[in-house]
Specification:
The chain is mainly α. It has a domain of about 25 residues. About 40% of the residues lie in helices and about 5% in strands. It contains three helices and two strands; from the N terminus they run αααββ. It has a two-stranded antiparallel sheet. Strand 1 and strand 2 form a beta hairpin. The mean pLDDT is about 80.
Length: about 80
Amino acid sequence: MLTRLRQLALHPGLLPPNYLEQLRSTEDDDESTHMALPITPNRRRDLQSLLAQFIEDNEECPVCISVLTDPRITACGHPFCLAW
């Protein structure tokens, strides 16, 4: 059932017809939008405690849908398994 829901959510019919052109135009407009933001020491500490909480709660990886193994966290606070 989850697989079917993912297929529906990722259906190409949900994208606007000019989606690829929009992506290309944003890539050409400004290269600085792809630069990573610096992480301050306070933000790093917050992310580490958030990841520790995810590990303690046995949260699932949103990519592989299993318990986090070798967990990492993005700058925006999303956990994932390093293997993915």
